[in-house]
Amino acid sequence: MSLLAIKYKRGHLEILNQLLLPHESVYEEITGAEDGWQAIRTMKVRGAPAIALVGALSLAVELLPVSFSSKEELKNFVAEKLQYLTTARPTAVNIMEAAKHLTLFVKDSSSKINDTETVKVELITEIEGMLEKDLSDNKALGRLGAEHMLQLVGADKLKVLTHCNTGSLATSGFGTALGVIRHLSEQDHIDHVFCTETRPYNQGSRLTAYELVYENIPSTLVADSMVSLLMKTKGVHAVVVGADRVVANGDTANKIGTYQIAIAAKHHGIPFYVAVPSTSIDLSLEHGSDIVIEERPAEELTNVAGVRIAAPGIACWNPAFDVTPAELITGGIATECGVFKPSELKKALAGKN
Q1: Which of 61, 95, 246, 344 is the most exposed place for a label (fewest CB within 10 A)?
Q2: Active site at which residues (predicted)?
Q3: Domain architecture of the chain: domains with CATH
């Protein structure tokens, strides 16, 4: 089994089909933006950082063999493909930020470089650099988040709860919230990790449990509905989750079920952390109510592994995300730039976006 979600070398991209985990480890080739869009939409690849990476890299592999008659043709091609890729899943901000950055990059390069082929290669190189940067950002925020958590909690060995999947499978490697946990484990500061199953798509039981077992981190799987009792009886020291979009006031969109975990943590006096790269922070939106929440097909709620478990004829509501208000993020928001209170976020990262 592999924990590498993305395999890339110039001109060739493969993604680990996460719909088949933990039973099968199957890589599928992505030959262009249409393949990338489909892989993101169907959740063969998921996690806000990985979505942005696969989207951008799918454009890179499609670009490489194509010859363009002019820089204008190249710019239009890139803009059209990137705009399309941003429609695959609307809530995660990373791919939208990547699209903005790459659109501006090719425009700027075109104004400085005469040769169209050189502009194209420069763009591909810029996209490839996103992989390395994501990994370094993950490691930095993992370290900073872990250090902050240890200091705030005041214990040497921590019991930590996490939700959904935020590890190597959701990023270029290492992870965000699971990166914090991984750093704690590497420094021998983990007593135990609890992961939720994360219904209805079971990213916790299928993916996070898989990563924790692979890394030999002491861990226990719990149902989403067990969280309050878990906090009351098992001595959880902290909660850490990832995010698909954090807005200027600190309100955070993450996998459905995060909001209720934050409420329970607040009630039990347990620090609640969000761990994200700065690319997941959207300072253009002020409040969580401005975030578009994706709704997924009913079948993801009524069926498990292709077998219907719900009564036929029942109506379904299946939002993929909820928004945790900033006041419930009591531990802080861990980024590669530092750990901030929600109220500090806008000022701290104003120069990054």
Answers
A1: 344
A2: 244
A3: 6-134 (1.20.120.420), 142-349 (3.40.50.10470)
**What integer is the mean pLDDT of 187-214?**
96
**Is the peptide bond between 312 and the residue preceding it cis, with omega within 30 degrees of 0?**
no
* Model pLDDT for residues 258-272, shown as the tens digit of each residue: 999 999 999 999 999
Q: How far apart are CA 126 and CA 115, in angstroms?
A: 17
Buried b (16+ CB within 10 A) or exposed e, 180-211: bbbbbbeeebbebbbbbbbbbbbbbbbbbbbb
| CB contact set of 348 (below 8 Å; sequence gap of 6+) | 337, 338, 340
When pLDDT is cut at 50, 70 and 90, the band that residue 1 belongs to is very low
Strand 238-241, strand 245-247: pairing? unpaired
Q: What does the pLDDT average to over 91-117?
A: 95
**Buried-exposed string 256-269: b where 16+ CB fall within 10 A, e elsewhere:** bbbbbbbbbbbeee
> Residue 311 gets which letter from DSSP?
P
DSSP 295: B
Q: Which residues is 219 bridged to in the sheet?
A: 193
In the predicted model, what is the mean pLDDT of residues 240-269?
Answer: 98
In what side-by-side order are the strands of the sheet with 12-16?
6-9, 12-16, 27-30
State how far the alpha carbon of 90 is from the alpha carbons of 64, 244, 320, in Å: 27, 10, 11
Residue that is written with structure tokens 């609890």 in the block: 194
CB 240, CB 160: distance < 8 Å: yes
Nearest to 344 by CA among 248, 278, 271, 273: 248
Is-above-0.90 flag for pTM?
yes
Mean pLDDT for the stretch of residues 95-106: 96
